[in-house]
Automatic annotation (TrEMBL):
InterPro entries: Pep_chain_release_fac_I. One of its GO terms (molecular function) is ribosome binding. It is an enzyme of class 3 (hydrolase). The keyword NADP does not apply. It holds the Pfam family RF-1. This is Aminoacyl-tRNA hydrolase. Residues 11-130 form the Prokaryotic-type class I peptide chain release factors domain. Residues 98-114 have a biased composition (Basic residues).
Length: 134
């Protein structure tokens, strides 16, 4: 099970910068864009098995040295953007650690097969009755 997002805070580095896009003077003055940097391989919170699973699932999103970068510039507030990027981080880890239930192959029941074949027979008879007689 994944620990809460607060457990990762000592390992996360936040960096702020000026956000792009609309916002008037606020965009030019305030550093509201938040970038989250987290080094997967140096994490003390996760087990080696969890790290390996995350590495497999998030491989393309990580840098060459195992650094995960996430940004948020959705809101005009730096604090709100920090909350947004933390929520995205936690959701991404939860999604990457989720193991889908293995699929068990099943067969259709005898009744279902019989019902399907009866339906096909009825349709076949309908079409056969539409043909011209010689």
């Amino acid at each position: 099970m994944l620990p809460p997002a607060a457990a990762f805070l000592p390992e996360i580095i936040f960096q702020t910068s000026r956000a792009s896009g609309p916002g008037g003077q606020n965009v030019n003055k305030v550093e509201s864009r938040v970038e989250l940097r987290w080094h997967l391989l140096d994490s003390q919170v996760l087990t080696d098995e969890q790290k390996q699973l995350i590495l497999e699932k998030l491989g393309p999103q990580l840098t060459a040295d195992g650094l995960l970068l996430l940004t948020a510039q959705d809101d005009r507030s730096q604090l709100r953007n920090k909350e947004i990027v933390l929520a995205r981080f936690h959701a991404l880890l939860l999604k990457s650690l989720h193991r889908p239930k293995p699929r068990r192959a099943t067969k259709p029941s005898r009744g279902a097969v019989r019902k399907r074949l009866e339906g096909k027979k009825i349709q076949s008879d309908k079409k056969a009755n539409r043909r011209k007689l010689d």
